[in-house]
Amino acid sequence: MVCALGAVAWDWGIIPPFQRYTVAMPPVTATPEQVTLAYLRALDAHDTKTARALSTKDHRPVTDLWLQGTTGISDIDITDSRGESGATVATSFTTHGSDDSFVDGSYWVYTLTRDSRSGRWLINSEGMG
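== DUF4829 domain-containing protein ==
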């Protein structure tokens, strides 16, 4: 009974999420699509270290909001990508435990930029597509 109540409380966002699994950092040579997928999986896992490492310094507060405001992300679909010096990756996914302001399955677009030191693609901003 206690486990069932705990699971419901966690899914409803009553208790804060905890790290469920670890997401491997993609290689420095990973494409923007691979980085975006790893970032979304890290948000689902509540793998703070990986999610923040795949975000630019300016984007980390948004990453933290996702980590605090959802209990999970599923049904991830990378729908489109484009760009040369910067990249735009369109996605759709389902959130769990959020405040219902995000419409599940709608397009959500990430812009990525290359880190000047490592050359790795990083999530720089996001929003409705």
